Amino acid sequence: MRNLPTVLIGIFLLSILTSCTGGGTGSKADPYFTGYDGAAMRLPPGSAPKIFYYYSSPRPGDNLLSYNLEVANKGAADTYGGVYISGYDPTFIKVTGVEISEAGDNIDCDWDAIFANHNWQAVIYCTFLGDSSGYVNLGAGRGTLDAFGLDLDIARLFPSDVKETQLLGRKIGDWVHNLRFKIDCDTSTPNKECGIGVDWTTADFDFGAATNGDLAIGYVTNLYANMPGDRTFINRFHGKEFALSGDRQSYPGGELAYIPFEVEIISWPKGLQQTQQNFMFTSCYVYTTYADPQVCIDPYPDTSNRKVCKPKAVTYPKGQGGPVAITSIQQENTPRAIYFTINIQNKGKGLIYALPSLHKCDPLQADRVTNKDLNTVILGDIRLANEHMQFKCQPQNKIRLDDKGKGSIMCEYPILYNIQSAYQSPLVISLWYGYSETLQTSVLLKRGN
After folding, report:
1. Residues whose CB falls within 8 Å of the CB of residue 241, separated by 6 or more in sequence, listed in order
2. How far does CA 47 lie from the centroid of its chain?
3. Per the structure, how many domains does the chain have?
């Protein structure tokens, strides 16, 4: 398990390793980019007792129950996330390092993102809950810079020696030079509306320079760094973080970590002899699904000329090494453009969280999880080989899945060359999403004396 510093994780950028696939059935050549697993949890044999005894006059450690949770990255992408433990009665049970807030005021903040031509923009929305009054709407495009504004170049906040430090083969200053934080307020409106935004341009990054999945991790952690509160989607007062390499040629088998949870019985209910307690472990993490099938670019598919390829659909019967799978890609060729329809499905055992709502995966927080928080996948990257900023997609880079976990997006690619011959090119696709799985165990607590 890697220990990622809070400051540096916000600027981890990366791109996607390529795997060779042919037209027809994808993932023929790379044995790693298959399957539907992500970060899988399990309690190793012997680590989850079925019966535990409480002692009113304990020796040191007598009333401590330990769980050693295994988290293994069985998919192909790198992942960053956390694990929470819940389901127990907090009136007489305490988990070391976990602080459960009492009922009261709370601020519910979300962010949303817009992606166009490798330029990401985010806006933050906050609502006061509980006894607090009022509503703060922090939406993009509201207000004017004439009233009040701030445009902050994040790179200026980093000392020169830090910006010269190497990270994933590049200087930190290079990673953050396109990251800006903006505030835009209009005090003349009745509601004093303000916009808080993050603008991060990634078009000039080398999309083949680092490990698959880190670009999504860097994007999410950058945006959460500008939100109020813990500045990450993992609440460190409720859970424990993990960062694990994926199962690829550079790390066969994937990385795993053992995350300990220490449970203490702090008191015993009067008159009680025994009670059943449940413990549920919830994982919340960022994941990426990647594919690069060879597609046929043919402006005139109906001509009788001899050509090196013919357009046809690509299917993936075994997935790409992630819980959200690209199941098939259809293409329609015309003289001016090619239309790709990308079909995806949740093939894993958990829930898909929209990246702006991944903090709500924490079962110990008060924010309500609604339909808008679930079943949304971001099309983080789509290109032919190295040709960025050419595709136009509908819906715009967001894929909404239905009740059966299925969704699709259509992307238009303009023909760049006025030729009759056909040629093959890799269609690089990268899906970004949050994912959550649960694991439950129970223990019978008995009074020992």
Report:
1. 4, 80, 81, 82, 234
2. 29
3. 1
Q: Give every CB contact of residue 146 below 8 A, 6+ residues apart in sequence.
A: none
Cα–Cα dist 298/11, whole Å = 39
Mean pLDDT along residues 182-197 = 47
User: What's the mean pLDDT when you consider all of the chain?
Assistant: 77
Is residue 195, in this structure, part of any structural domain at all?
Answer: no
In a domain, 153, yes or no: no
Contacts of residue 85, defined as CB under 8 A and 6 or more positions apart, other chains included, come to 67, 95, 98, 239, 261, 263, 279, 280, 281, 282
Q: How many CB atoms sit inside 10 A of residue 208's CB?
A: 12
Q: Does residue 274 register a pLDDT over 90? A: yes
pLDDT digits (tens, 9 = 90+) for 348-372: 999 999 998 999 999 998 888 999 9
| Mean local confidence (pLDDT), 60-88 | 95
**How far lies 269's CA from each of 89, 262, 437, in Å?**
11, 20, 32
DSSP 3-state of 438: strand
Report DSSP letters for 111-132, one per residue.
Answer: EEEEEETTEEEEEEEEEEETT-
pLDDT at position 294, please?
95
Helix, strand, or coil (residue 314): strand
Q: Of 140, 163, 138, which is closest to residue 153 (Cα–Cα)? A: 163
Over residues 12-31, the pLDDT tens digits come to 333 333 333 334 665 445 67
pTM: 0.76
Radius of gyration of the chain (CA): 25
* Residues 314, 293 contacting (CB under 8 angstroms): yes
pLDDT above 70: percentage of residues in the chain = 67
* pLDDT higher than threshold 80 for residue 2: no
Domain-located, residue 186: no
| DSSP one-letter string for 134-197 | -EE-B-TT-S-TTTEEEEEEGGGGS-HHHHTSEETTEEHHHHHTTEEEEEEE-TTSTT--EEEE
Query: How far apart (Å, rounded) are the C-alpha atoms in residues 250 and 102?
Result: 46
DSSP for residue 87: -
Q: What are phi and psi of 155, to 5 degrees?
A: -60, -30
Please report whether residue 233 resides in a domain: yes
- What domain range includes position 233? 6-118+203-447
Buried b (16+ CB within 10 A) or exposed e, 304-340: eeebebebeebbbebbbbbbbbbbbbbbebeeeebeb
Structure tokens at 97: 């390092």
